[in-house]
Design a protein that fits this description.
The chain has 498 residues and is α/β, with parallel strands linked by helices. The protein is 45% helix and 15% strand. The protein contains 20 helices and 17 strands. Helix 14 packs parallel to helix 15. The radius of gyration is 26 Å and the shape is elongated. Bound molecules: ligand NPW, adenosine-5'-diphosphate (ADP) and potassium ion.
Length: 498
């Protein structure tokens, strides 16, 4: 599904008017109807307060107020501004003609909120810019401290539709009904905290317009990833599903390779090799029955001719899980320069990149899978700076390095060399255990080996990884989820998509 920037909303609005002759007033009416439709899922809520700002988000709020009144609910409107314009003004006139109580003075807001079941936030929509101040700031504080159920229209007030999310007063919603298409920041980890449950509602924008409208950010939804699933045929053999190598592990860190290996195998790879230090060989052999273990030699010059043969076995390679960064530089550089296939650089592979600081090693068929700290080591911004504006930062660096970057988190941002960003929201806090990332690397390796491009493998892999965790959580909850449970649950995740 396409994701919009704040500025796209105005453009779409204009296209609706000019090309499809649909006035904004109709879209506003539709928006109000869809918000009310959501409210009706919660019986027992009968008293509503709608907070109305001066823009079209306030106009939507006024439609909601009218429709709730028509349904016989008790509705109060808190107006922040008397002089509304255009369609919002038309809706204010309608509300004024009905027996809906209107309030304007701030001191009355505490009492009104006290008497309400649900607060409907129509203070600011995507037209919000800069920082919040004055009366609006106080209103947001009162909403957030009310303890009442808060439903945000389009976007929580104070949150920008896209771009850096500054720390300031933002409405904390229980639910956000976003209109037409989701806005970029609603899909990021930080924005999701303010949005609460996110519902996307069709408001009558013609599908022709949506299909033709170009965006460079997408929400990874089932319709996108389903198209990426590798095909399996009856008439096939292990050679049909590709060969991969995992280069990783070090003393005390063999588990990372084992997790990645299980994941690659459960992702459907035809044949899997692991390349590890001699002291790990036994451990890997006894834990991963289906993979073939290759042994690393300490003297790189002596090892090179053997290594070249090993590398020739596969089309896809994962380097870094549990690898350690001690004295690995030369081997790492040699592998990156001598493996022509698709490479996933994860964990200590990324730390080695940051140590070597030679980004000319990165090529178009490489995927970097950093968590924010690893990203910070590579690009030199702080974790906070990265999290505040993840979409644009991932876009900038995946274009700059001309590769695919998978910035992991509760929302994972996938940037491609062409500047597209895909946002993944499958997965849950059960994944917040060391080792989950190793599983992700293995899944992507398995998919690349089966012929997916780096862009496709990253998208499908990240989605499946989260979906596997969601499937486990549905049955067993979040606390006890372990990375080792994920490869097995991958079977159910595939089944859900096929
Ligand atoms: N096609 C669609 O999707 C449709 C979308 N619709 C709805 O329209 C919404 C967008 O409406 P919008 O553009 O009128 O702006 P909105 O967000 O209501 O408020 C901005 C107002 O706040 C003000 N303001 C800004 N920053 C401020 C600050 N820091 N502190 C204080 N004030 C500040 C700003 O004032 P200005 O800066 O312009 O003087 C402006 O007046 C959208 O989210 C959706 O709900 C539907 O109605 C129909 C179809
Ligand atoms: N709260 C969360 N919600 C969704 N996904 C999460 C959450 N916490 C972690 N994850 C996912 O778990 C994985 C953790 O990766 P990483 O930090 O590299 O772990 P490790 O290096 O220990 O294996 C990433 O894919 C990330 O997206
Ligand atoms: K809002």
């Amino acid at each position: 599904m396409k994701a919009l920037k704040g500025s796209d909303v105005k453009k779409i609005d204009l296209l609706c008017q000019e090309k499809y002759k649909i006035p904004t007033l109709l879209l506003m009416e539709h928006s109000g109807l869809k918000v009310v439709e959501e409210i009706q899922h919660y019986p027992g809520h009968t008293k509503f307060t709608v907070i109305v700002g001066k823009g079209n988000n306030g106009g939507d709020g006024l439609v909601v107020a009218r429709l709730l009144h028509l349904k016989g609910f008790s509705v109060k409107v808190f107006l922040t501004e008397e002089n509304l314009q255009g369609d919002a003004k038309i809706n204010l006139e309608i509300v004024k003609s009905l027996p809906i109580p209107l309030f304007r003075d701030l001191p009355s807001l505490d009492r009104i909120l006290e008497e309400t079941d649900v607060i409907i936030d129509g203070l600011f929509g995507v037209g919000f810019k800069g920082t919040i101040g004055g009366i609006a700031k106080e209103i947001v504080q009162k909403i957030n401290s009310s303890g009442k159920y808060v439903l945000c229209i389009d976007i929580p007030s104070g949150l920008a539709g896209d771009g850096p999310m500054e720390n300031r007063e933002i409405v904390k919603g229980d639910k956000t009904v976003t209109l037409g298409l989701p806005k970029e920041n609603l899909l990021l980890s930080k924005g999701r905290v303010y949005a609460g449950e996110l519902v996307v509602k069709d408001i009558g924008i013609p599908p022709e317009l949506i299909n033709q409208y170009k965006t460079d950010t997408y929400w990874l939804t089932e319709d996108i990833v389903k198209k990426l699933l590798p095909k399996r045929s009856q008439d096939s053999h292990k050679g049909s599903y590709g060969t991969g190598i995992i280069v990783g592990g070090s003393k005390g860190m063999s588990g990372a390779v084992i997790l990645a290996a299980h994941a690659a195998l459960r992702a459907g790879i035809g044949l899997l090799y692991t390349l590890v230090d001699r002291e790990l060989v036994n451990t890997i052999e006894t834990s991963s029955y289906e993979s073939i273990t290759l042994e690393m030699e300490e003297d790189l010059e002596k090892f090179k001719p053997i290594l070249v043969n090993y590398l020739a076995k596969a089309q896809s390679l994962l380097i870094g899980p549990g690898f350690s960064t001690n004295n690995r530089e030369e081997l790492f550089i040699y592998i990156l320069n001598n493996f022509p296939g698709k490479i996933i650089i994860d964990g200590d592979g990324l730390n080695l990149l940051a140590k070597i600081q030679d980004y000319s090693l990165i090529r178009e068929n490489h995927i970097l899978t950093p968590h924010p700290k690893e990203m910070s080591r590579i690009i030199g911004l702080t974790v906070e700076e990265i999290l505040k504006d993840s979409i644009n930062i991932v876009r900038e660096y995946s274009k700059k390095y001309r590769c695919t970057i998978v910035l992991k988190g509760s929302t994972t941002c996938i940037g491609t060399k062409n500047g597209e960003v895909f946002l993944n929201t499958t997965g849950n806090n059960g994944l917040a255990t060391g080792g989950s990332g190793d599983v992700l690397g293995g899944i992507i390796l398995g998919l690349l080996a089966q012929g997916l491009s780096v862009e496709e493998g990253a998208q499908l892999g990240v989605y499946l990884h989260g979906l596997a965790a969601d499937i486990i959580a549905e049955e067993k909850g979040y606390f006890s989820l372990l990375p080792r449970d994920l490869p097995e649950a991958l079977a159910l995740a595939f089944k859900k998509l096929y």
